[in-house]
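Q: Hi! First time doing this. I have a protein sequence and I read that you can turn it into a structure. Is that right? Here it is:
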Amino acid sequence: MIRNLFTDEQRLSLSRARHHPLFRKDDGASPDLSSIFRWAMKGVRGVKLRVTRVGGRIYTTERDIAEFVAALNQGNSESGVSGNRRREIGAARQRLAREGVQ
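A: Yes, that's right. Below is the predicted 3D structure, encoded as structure tokens:
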């Protein structure tokens, strides 16, 4: 998806974005910059923080942060289950189905 970089929306560097109130922990601490970078590059539970690269810098916006947090908090019953564990559960269900066990 191509984003319009000339909107009125304020760009935040990742180092500034880590201090966003939605990212703060209960004790007021901000996540480490490496966590924010990982959320943008690899994601969390299949959800990536949307970013824009300008030269060598990486930016996000308040809207992108809000959408990222909202997507992570959607009512997914398996939200705390890793991808590997989901695959293991799926394989076990297939084995049970082949054996006729419900």
